[in-house]
From TrEMBL:
Belongs to the PMEI family. One of its GO terms (cellular component) is plant-type cell wall. The keyword Heme does not apply. It comes from Triticum aestivum (Wheat). Residues 1-21 form the signal peptide. GO terms for molecular function: enzyme inhibitor activity. This is Pectinesterase inhibitor domain-containing protein. InterPro entries: Invertase/methylesterase_inhib (IPR035513), Pectinesterase_inhib_dom (IPR006501). Keywords: Disulfide bond, Signal.
Length: 169
């Protein structure tokens, strides 16, 4: 038991020296990088195992270059997913336009309000399909504001058609 306790205290006594030598390389390097937040730099390098264990600036450069490759690759993957999902959204919006144009045509020709309502109502939910695609394929939805606005406008149109259908106009 005494040996274990002694080993524990010995390790504790050596730890500041180990941390100081690693962190001094990080601290010194981060303090010299122009146009970079010192705290951000220290945080990134300290959190990265290969950065935290680096003994010189070359080791830090390798660690951050590898971290950058990992992050860029992840971003490229996310962008690829986003392109796929945006293409799906283009299809949804083309369908939405077709429904609305058909409803306008039906309105101009005096057709049954129930059919008009059904088209406009279906169109009002199409932006949600885009939202779902983007939420599943991307971490950020760049179309959220537009989808919400388009959905609201289509719901107004379908609501008016609903009133027409039920003779409340």
């Amino acid at each position: 038991m005494q040996t274990l306790t002694m080993l524990f205290f010995l390790t504790l006594a050596m730890l500041p020296g180990l941390i100081a030598s690693t962190s001094s390389v990080i601290n010194t390097t981060c303090s010299k990088i122009p146009d970079m937040s010192y705290h951000y730099c220290v945080g990134v390098l300290s959190a990265e195992p290969t950065g935290a264990s680096a003994i010189d600036t070359r080791g830090l450069a390798v660690a951050t270059a590898n971290l950058t490759v990992h992050n860029v690759t992840s971003t490229l993957h996310m962008m690829g997913d986003l392109v796929l999902e945006l293409n799906a959204c283009i299809g949804y919006y083309k369908y939405m336009v077709d429904l609305i144009v058909a409803a306008v045509d039906d309105l101009n020709k005096g057709r049954d309000a129930e059919l008009i309502y059904e088209k406009l109502y279906k169109a009002s939910y199409t932006p949600l399909d885009c939202d779902i695609a983007l939420f599943e394929g991307a971490e950020k939805n760049p179309m959220q504001e537009e989808n919400s606005e388009n959905q609201a406008l289509a719901r107004i149109a379908s609501g008016i058609a609903f009133l027409m259908w039920h003779g409340r106009s």
